[in-house]
Amino acid sequence: MSDPPLRRDQIGTVFPVENGATGHPKTRRARMWMQPGIGVKRWLMLFVVCTFIGAVGFLHFTWTGPLHFTATKWILWVNRFLRPEFMPLYLGGMIIMTLSLLGALWSIAMLSRSVLRGTGTAPNTAVDVIYARHTLSRAPRVVALGGGTGLSNLLKGLREITGNTTAVVAISDDGGSSGRLRESLDMIAPGDLTDCYAALSDSPVMARLMLHRFTRGDGIKGHTFGNLMLATLSEEEGGLGEAMQDIHEVLRIRGHVYPATLHPASLVAQLSDGRVIRGESQFATAVGEARIEQVQLDPPDVPVMGAIPRALEEAELIVLGPGSLYTSIIPALLVQEIAVGIRNSPAPLVYVASLMTEPGETDGHTLEDHVNAIVRHLGRTPDHILVNSATPPKDVLDRYAQQGARLLDLSGATQELRDRVRSLPLLQPNQARHDPHALAQALLNYTLRRHP
């Protein structure tokens, strides 16, 4: 079952900054200045009205006061210059008045540009900042939970339709750069946080730097700049919790990014054959022919990051995924206060289904198996399951098949599950990856249904 396309009046003031606007960048910025609620048109209109009133007042003063003789000479000079046989005198006055108004507007624009440059704000990005703070700040409040590239990919789309995104990020990763920093500094895994900060950052330069991975250098090879920055702030401030506000300000985050907990925790899996695996980096190779029955954090009672319960309470939409089921989505739900907040929230709960099964983690799983695993760990059934309906290219599917992955579809699904499914084309061209903007636009449907 597919959702109907969004109507223009449904979208309202939601206007994609980078991908929804077409044409030349200057045209796009001009359209953004005219968006409802941005707080510009009203003052521009007031300036125009006051200018006309001032012009009429000045005319009254000159014509009825001591400058009457000067005004008369001006009119006679203009009359000789324009030649009445070619242009009526009143039309010449209108042209002069229009040119004067345009000159006044131009001077204000140049003054604003100088002020912005003096305060360190690039004039070309000013409209983006104003748009984000005014228009996007009134958009739906969305809480997205997960980790890995799936969550950061979703955030890239959400940042274009709302400034009220709260990302709740799993922190149990123990491999790669994150694992090394976590082990040596006894901190939470920073890798997925770095990806999410970069995805929501309003600073293109900082977003690029956050994801830069060092390919050489003793001690820093394999680390990303973002991971090292978070590790530095954690050391400097005595933990990431104290540095969180600084991080959001430095990176100009459009929304908020929070770790599910500030306490390091390991992921432990119980398998169907009775074995127990510790550390999510071991899941892909150690599960074998068995299935993961249950996962939990060790220690299991880690406290939630303080701002998350309120975000869940105020949320208009809660999104799970996309991402790896047992190592990205479910770990974010294992903090008890988060699970309780989601169960008690009246907001729609949407699960964005993975595109493919995960070799070594969800081999042989159906879509219903994924949903049942979420219900088992969360205690709430998703209200909607968003499923991609487009088919990836054959060469992409063949490449995944060689790794043991297959498309996740509705094969064997019960009618109850099918009633919750919404199918839409959500793929990036020629890839087996969600398109951020198509996915975010599809999710917006669920908040619009609650506010007809």
Automatic annotation (TrEMBL):
Q: Which HAMAP family match?
A: Gluconeogen_factor
User: Which species?
Assistant: Deinococcus deserti (strain DSM 17065 / CIP 109153 / LMG 22923 / VCD115)
Q: Which family does it belong to?
A: Belongs to the gluconeogenesis factor family.
Q: Does the keyword Acetylation apply?
A: no
Record function comment: Required for morphogenesis under gluconeogenic growth conditions.
Protein's recorded name: Putative gluconeogenesis factor
Would you name any one GO CC term?
cytoplasm
Keyword list, A-Z: Cytoplasm, Membrane, Transmembrane, Transmembrane helix
Which sequence ranges are marked TM in the entry? Answer: 43-63, 89-109
What is the top-level taxon of the source organism? Bacteria
Keyword Cell division attached: no
